[in-house]
Task: structure prediction
Amino acid sequence: MKQVTHFHPALRALHWLMAAAILAMLFIGVAMVSTVSSMHAVLVAIHKPLGAAIFLLVLVRLWVRFATPTPPLPASVAPLQRALAHLSHWVLYALILLQPLIGWAMLSAAGYPVTLSVGFILPPIAPVSNDLYALLRPLHTWVALVLFIMVMLHLAAALLHGLMLRDGVFSSMAGTKRRG
Result:
């Protein structure tokens, strides 16, 4: 099998689409819980369907990731860095999968509908329970914070590879010519 130098175009498109959606979602989430203005309802109306879309996109992304070959890391990447890179990617995938499910379960436990659009409401995935809601509400916040930290670390690593090391790692996802 021929070794690839870039991620599959669908995987690259999903990566950048999800990056924008996740960053938007994190900032919308902060704004949503920080305001009591009339914007709160608008932000909630964006937050729920965007969370569902991110969940569906990560499922598609994982399918494409397993169905297509991926470029290897350069030989210059030390074994510990290689292990951390792989671990951090799987932690990101896990957080991106879990966060919408936690939000959905949290709203279900509170007895709130998860309305994605007019007339389209997701079924509850958890029983109505104040105790469960009390557990899931802070969990949703903490997972968002950890996700934000992981995204910032991922961005820092991408910039390190793209601007300083120029070893081809960044270009493999950007779709540009490899330098390394």
